[in-house]
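Progress report, Aim 2. The chain analyzed during this reporting quarter is listed below.
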Amino acid sequence: MLSAEEAVLYDRQLRAFGASTQQLLSRSVVVIELRDQLFEELAKTCAILGFHTLICFGQQRNNAFDLRNLNRYCTVKVVDASSSVSTVLIEAVKYRATDTVYLLLASSSLYDDLHECVSSLGTAHSYPQPYFLSFTQEDPSMLQVSIDKKPDDSYTLSEYCEIEDMCFLADMLGYFLINILRSRADIDAEHTQQSSLHSCTLRRDGLFWKITNG
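Predicted structure tokens for the chain:
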């Protein structure tokens, strides 16, 4: 039986994202390495949007909010970067279905461990759906995000952005993550294997940032 607060949360998610996407949202796991302010703000966005489980590696730099207290219906684990990636991830999902959707935002140093760990969670009857997100730059006014690629550690956007930029970019990246789930829901509905959503580009245009897919 849903509590009144849970009913409000699910109602908002259904209205905003649709039923199929909301179902994926409720069994999604986001792993974020807190590399800088942008990733910290993105973790905040994910908690507020209502992804089921959020695992953050590293320490919060901004003490203005506690990631664990932003949404009681989002399970948030903030663990030291020296902890074992696989141990924390398996502990977080051991009572969950193995067809969970994993959105993985980490540097290349964690890629192999995450890939091996998520692959081990599959069974003969269900399988994990991992999306590794890679962040690359050509110049300080552009950030490209792509899925299913090994992370590129050349990302340095935070050196050129104010906190207002970080918050806005984090909101747009949260929108991109939701659209990955929506694309995944379309694949499930159409029984296909190919996702139509592979990347997005964030580019500064004057005082504002714009997001484009592809």
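The longest helix spans residues 163-190. The mean pLDDT is 83. These observations will guide the mutagenesis work planned for the next reporting period.
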